[in-house]
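Lest this sound abstract, we think one record worth quoting, the chain in one-letter code, the fold tokenised, each line plainly labelled:

>
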Amino acid sequence: MPSLATILRALTLTLTFLAAPCKAVGITSYANMFFEPSDVINSTWFENSQWAQEMAISWTRKLALNGPWSVTNKTVMAKSGDVHDYLSYAVYYWPNCTSVGNTTALTSEEVWDECPYYRRDGVFNPDIHVVEDNEAMANLTDSVYLAAMAYIGTGDSAYSQHINDAMHTFFVNNATRMNPSIDYSQVIRGPGTQGGRRQGVLDMRGLAKAVSGVLVLRELEAPEWTDETDQGFVQWATDMVTWLETDDLALAEKAASNNHGTFYYNQLCALYALLGENDKAISALNEFYNSTFPGQINANGDQPLETARTRPYHYRAYNLAALTTNARIGDYVGLSPSGWNRTTTSGATMFDALKFAMAQNASTTNEDAEINQLNPTIAAVASKFGDPDGAYAAFLKASDPYYPGQPYFALNAGVSDSGIRQGLLRTTYGAVPAQPTKGSSWGYKRHERSRRRL
């Protein structure tokens, strides 16, 4: 039986993969993901994954309490002065005001503009959240894919309406839309122009999640997903692709050899998939596997560029999540040979990287709280290639005693539930906190279409 500490951690930990925390307590924001409409539409596995569906519904409703989101909600602007410009601050940079020469206390704005900032790798500066565009993007993209799952599971039009309204607000409405560029992302504050950095392109990684949800609504021809929103988002995506293909910041991020480069292709190829430009997605993925990927994994499965960081357990899982997303997009667009089986210069595959990562002790680098960051990737690999020795299921159960209740479980057909079922939790683990359920408390009836606020 898992320890009490493990159980409590699995129940209460909200994982965040950089500095984009969800305001809704208890929601896990996976590093990234992409799924095809066929993974959820007319899928017996998805239909039977009731516990995971219920969690997706619960998370959607929690997130929706803070939406719809917009970059225009901020009160601190980028140096452009345009409220529509996405803005975020470099997460590991801290001010050093000893050289400023002030005789009175500095205001926050004076600190941001006058004090030089220096890097403390792995140490988050909490005042980056004075601007919440990063959080808005994370919450938006999480809510879209989760609401798509909820819509499939319930048939309730409130979820498809939520997707339409959230996407229209963030990408289409002229009053609230984000400009299709990331010229002021991961800004290092202090003296100077305070322009964006190539690392800021990473902030858009969640577009793969949003595209997954939109593809589901398109496939179902959901009436709540309007032509205006679809066409507006297509135009935004077209412009964003142009920025990703041509801007100096974007091209520098594309050339990054670590997880930054992997995530660059996540968002670019997801947008290609949205636009129906599968040939371009295939070309871009081949470029990734022939240029960036070959140097990422050693023969023993180590990812040296991620291991070198101050939080190696996290960053190995992080890049693996991006590799999984690229492989799944590749499956959707018809990439051959499959991204799953591509090899690095050393002859290693992402499976070797996963095996190595699973064998590491998170405690060695004080990363116990990060233990289940590997789980969505493990589930995806087990679904795709099986788990003949049960190693994947054993890891999932040990790191998260309730993993069949995670939304990713419903997206990965065939993954073992290790005998963990919602109705057996009390007999398995003893008294447990109440689990989210559909029913009288929310008034849902499966496949009954209705229009109401979430």
Remarks:
- The CA atoms of residues 258 and 305 lie 6 Å apart.
- The chain is about 45% helix and 0% strand.
- Residues 4-89+131-429 form a domain with the Glycosyltransferase fold (CATH 1.50.10.100).
- The longest strand covers residues 93-95.
